[in-house]
């Protein structure tokens, strides 16, 4: 267990808890309206943190490479930040939120479980990573575990076809976003890349969701839901997204992506404690398979060329 593994476990716990938070909040706020506000909150926090890191560096204080961008931005950098923002934040959020609304939980979970496969295949096709047999065995075991935990009721096509396609599109958007930033995070900090792409992608997302926001009865929203909205923005977007790109920078996109399949385990545990949903023996076996798959990908891993900072 390295520091990166520990950070990824924290990310998994945040995203797992976020499912139960969203499930309760969506009873009061439509999904796109909720998403728009939390993206605005998270973008403002990211931009403030980027400014604070720049001022600290200018003042002569030592700032971690995770937080500070040492190199000047080129024209290509700005173009990359723009399209990554559109794909990774605007299109991904629209596809995921819209898809989950139109398909079943089982279908969405299985399709999202394919993310590590898509990332690994794209990474190999682009020559970014060389993955051994243990990695592919781990991916297969993890996907099998996803199926046992939440996917046995899946049935694709028919009434859910549109939703299935939207979720599948969001998988490709997230995979492209993960791999597309490899050049940028080699030169710039994960904080800068994550924050600027979110701000750039958040603007068109909010504009698209504006009609739903205008028809939302904000006066009927409870204090708990407002608190949930801020929590989801700060942790599920700010903290978790930053951890994602730190891990991509340190251990590579394919191994980072596999941790996304552990999220259903955390969601299951939180739902059991908070919502009283039962954990069956089959779900426990599936959770074991998912964790076993992650462990397989960690065996024989070559260390990252990027030094681990204090």
Query: How far apart, in Å, are the first and last alpha carbons?
Result: 16 Å
Structural class: mainly alpha
What is the mean predicted local confidence, pLDDT?
Answer: 83
Helix content: over 70%
Low-confidence stretches: 303-310
In DSSP terms (H or I, runs of 4 or more residues), the helix count works out at 13
As a whole number of angstroms, the C-alpha radius of gyration is 19 Å
Total individual domains: 1
Beta-strand residue percentage: under 5%
Largest pleated sheet: none
SSE order, as H and E? HHHHHHHHHHHHH
Shape: globular
How many runs of DSSP E, i.e. beta strands? Answer: 0
List its salient traits.
0% strand, 75% helix, single chain, 310 residues, mainly alpha
Characterise the protein shown here:
The chain has 310 residues and is an all-alpha fold. It has one domain. It has helices spanning 3-25, 31-58, 75-102, 105-112, 115-125, 133-151, 161-180, 182-187, 190-214, 223-251, 253-258, 263-274, 281-298. The protein is globular. The two termini are 16 Å apart.
Write the layout of secondary structure elements.
Blueprint: H1 3-25, H2 31-58, H3 75-102, H4 105-112, H5 115-125, H6 133-151, H7 161-180, H8 182-187, H9 190-214, H10 223-251, H11 253-258, H12 263-274, H13 281-298
Helix pairs in contact: 1-10, 1-12, 2-9, 2-10, 3-7, 3-9, 4-6, 4-7, 5-7, 6-13, 9-10
Summed up:
The protein contains 13 helices and no strands.
